[in-house]
Amino acid sequence: MSAEVTIFTRIMAGEIPADIVYEDDDCICINDIQPQAPTHVLIIPRKPIPRLVDASAEDKVLLGSLMLKVGDIARTLGVGDAFRVCINNGEQAGQTVFHLHIHLLAGKAFTEGSLSMQ
Ligand code: AMP
Description:
It contains two helices and five strands, in the order αβββαββ. By secondary structure, the protein is α+β, with helices and mostly antiparallel strands. It has a domain at 1-38 and 47-82: HIT family, subunit A. It starts with 6 loop residues before the first helix and ends in a 12-residue tail after the last strand. The structure holds adenosine monophosphate (AMP).
């Protein structure tokens, strides 16, 4: 899938406001506009990779660094001991914004059942 301009690209360009939690040269982290948990942020690489499956070997360092940032951001938000990460890949998996992003959710009880796919 080729990259398109998405709402996240526009947020990163400063065209649309967002509640920015953290940003650096590689990524931006914003509060989700429709939070599914008391803490629900999105970690978004600046590089507009549409889906996880569209990443390539050249993105290896970027993807690894995003995972480390998930931990750093969780610690900064005070939820480092209990959080869940999720990446939706593709429309049928619930992806609605086609710019790779990692959901970080915390602050509620996660049960095994909440991973169910129906
Ligand atoms: P996904 O369904 O995995 O593609 O996730 C997209 C997420 O982006 C959803 O959780 C939306 O609530 C969130 N979202 C969409 N627009 C915005 C926005 N303008 N600011 C913050 N989060 C947004």
